[in-house]
Amino acid sequence: MKKVITVLVLVFFTATSFAQEKNKKVTMEVDGVCEMCKIRIEKAALGVKGVKYALWDIPSHQLSLIMDERKTNTMEVKTALVAVGHDTKELKATEEAYNKVMPCCKYRDDEVVKSHEN
What we know:
Layout: H1 2-19, E1 24-29, H2 35-46, E2 51-57, E3 62-67, H3 74-83, H4 95-99, H5 110-116
Antiparallel strand pairs: 1-3, 2-3
């Protein structure tokens, strides 16, 4: 009976360790409009323990990440992003956090967005 329990425990831990990837590639949409937003978004993402790579594309608003799922998850990254004033699909930045971004980074303002389209 002890051997059966030991085997089951080992199988469980093995399955759990395979479920979490060391170098998981993830993309997510993050609102922003300019190069300053890019710097802020990438810095916030890289500040999350377990994120190894972050690249935000301005035109598509896609943030590409490589992260260690054993150390973090996408919700932790999204939480870090909204803390510096950038919305994601699931989480929105507070007005206080949004108001701290530079005037040229006000992605919720249609006039600012239009000025970056040129």
